Amino acid sequence: MGMGGAGFVPIMGTSDLSRIEAPVTVKAYLLCAFAAFGGIFFGYDTGWMSGVLGTPYFITEYTGLQYDYATRTPIGVSSTDFGLPSSTKSLMTSILSCGTFFGALIAGDIADFIGRRPTIIYGCIIFSVGCVLQMASTNQLALFVMGRLISGLGVGFTSAIIILYMSEISPRKFRGALVSGYQFCITLGILLANCVTYSTSQRNDTGAYRIPIAVQFLWAIILGVGLYLLPESPRYHVQKGKIELAAKDLALVRGQPVDSEYIKDELAEIVANHEYEMQVIPQTSYIGSWMACFQGSLHKGNGNLRRTILGAGMQMMQQLTGINFIFYFGTTFFQQLGTISNPFMISLVTTLVNVLSTPLSFWSIEYFGRRLLLIWGAIGMILAQFVVACIGVTAGRLEADNAAAVKAMIAFICIYIFFFAVTWGPVGWVIVGECFPLPIRSRGVGISTASNWFWNCIIAVITPYMVGKSAGSANLGPRVFFIWGSLCSLSLIFAYFLVPEMKGLTLEQIDRMMDETTPRKSAGWVATTTFAAEMGHVRPAEKSPNGHYPSAGDHYPNAGDPYYQEHTSPQPQPGSPYQQSTHASYASHPSSPQQFPASPQQQATSPQQFYPQSYFPR
């Protein structure tokens, strides 16, 4: 419905900081939590490749090397030489990340055009097509690689937009825990993949690799059908000017009636923040909308360039911790060491540590905050990785035949995984979902997720050559942990100087915090006003006696006060088109920056002066 149609009064909010987010019911929490299921989809696809690369039948299919299933030993070659060439492993693994890189970038545009939910659903469909091609392959490397590439596009869609969707619908006090649930589901997916590949590893038929691939269809179906039934992100509808739909979706994700004062207040805050950001980030051409992600000062936290560096850098540093070295190549790495009798079982153990450790982040991320976890997590990973490397080049060498040293290496690898699972694993995704303003959020999250997959691809390409024994490989063995430990030191520096504390803030308050303080001082920042107050969207009953819109310290009537209730919606002027109708719906508002009003500081505002682009039912 057009702006200014009969039956609408302006959407008005509150200056009360305690009312800018509606209370949430248990049912609504479960609804938000289901979105985290996308992590299983992502994690399983990450995890099954490591096991399949070490499966005898798969190796025979793509190399011609023979294997005796009765004695479980290779025929004609040693057990350390029985495997795929480094180039083949590199191509099969990295091509998925190549697809996800482009998928994540494309997904940002699609999510802004058709919505968050449909983008994820299309991602599930594309992923399934790729799975079919992989299953159809026997020894055709090109067909298998093409299937991995197409599956990667689908994973790129889902991995980027699931984070965006969850961040936009989750309540602020538990947003970190709920988005951490996404990382937990990733670890659960990796564990399930290891269980499936372990159970099929000794099969003497194509089921050795086709069964692990086929299981992925289940996750795609569950995620696609579930997202079809969930509501759209209310912030997406605000961005598109569909306030009526935004209110309905917000009511669903908060478990409140659509005409609740809480819903009105939270929606008014989202709308006011969007209007503010549209003044700062005007929408121009398609290219200009992408370039907006790289505008602003590098030295100021409120610049879009700084936020893009934060999001993309966060994902880069997460990958440079080396965690996917374990999950992509753990099985083959343990085989090549020659000191571990059952590499499949050790890979399963490391994955189990990852799964059991991640739930600790649900509590710690909201208790200690994002920044503190990243700093101490990096320190823990650095120490554990250097210990593994030092043992590996001394008592843990193959010729030393020291079982105790090998066990110590495995133990410290598990400690390293523990620190990652509680800190950088979940927090990396939480930060990405929180740090971008609404006008560039989908593209910012897309760029950040693409950064994750770009560095994931780089690691997948070079790691087989770093630890492999084939011609042209470095054969570093456990010395590779010196490299990962050194890169973790960069992650520590990045977290200390660039990552602000976002615990307990709404997405709109995070925008303001990054405007007003530095990362090192961010933990002490406290919100003092709302965007609704600053943009003039406060109810007349809340206006201070001095004639200004109040801040957090001002007095305003309580929500239970009859006077407050009487003035919940501003009264229209005589003859106003708002006076006649009682139509109970929400109107669209345009998003042209030229139509946004000046702030209360820039114009004298009376209770009768309303913002024409924002409406709410009486």
Structure, explained:
The model is unreliable at 1-10 and 544-618 (pLDDT under 50). The longest helix is centred in the last third of the chain and has 30 residues, at 438-467. The protein has 25 helices and two strands. It is mostly helical and 618 residues long. A hairpin with a 4-residue loop joins strand 1 and strand 2 (73-75). A two-stranded antiparallel sheet has the order 1-2. Helices cover 62% and strands 1% of the residues.
Produce the secondary structure layout.
Elements: H1 26-34, H2 38-53, H3 56-63, E1 66-68, E2 73-75, H4 86-114, H5 116-136, H6 141-169, H7 175-200, H8 207-214, H9 216-229, H10 234-239, H11 243-254, H12 261-280, H13 286-291, H14 304-320, H15 323-337, H16 343-357, H17 360-367, H18 370-392, H19 403-422, H20 424-434, H21 438-467, H22 480-498, H23 507-516, H24 531-534, H25 562-566
Antiparallel strand pairs: 1-2
Helix pairs in contact: 2-6, 2-7, 2-9, 2-15, 4-5, 4-6, 4-21, 5-6, 5-8, 5-9, 6-20, 6-21, 7-8, 7-16, 7-17, 7-20, 14-20, 14-21, 14-22, 15-16, 15-21, 16-19, 18-19, 18-20, 18-22, 19-20
Average of pLDDT: 78
Low-confidence stretches: 1-10, 544-618
Largest sheet: 2 strands, antiparallel
| Spatial strand order of the main sheet | 1-2
Radius of gyration from the CA trace? 27 Å
Structural class: mainly alpha
- The best one-word shape is globular
**β-sheet strand percentage:** under 5%
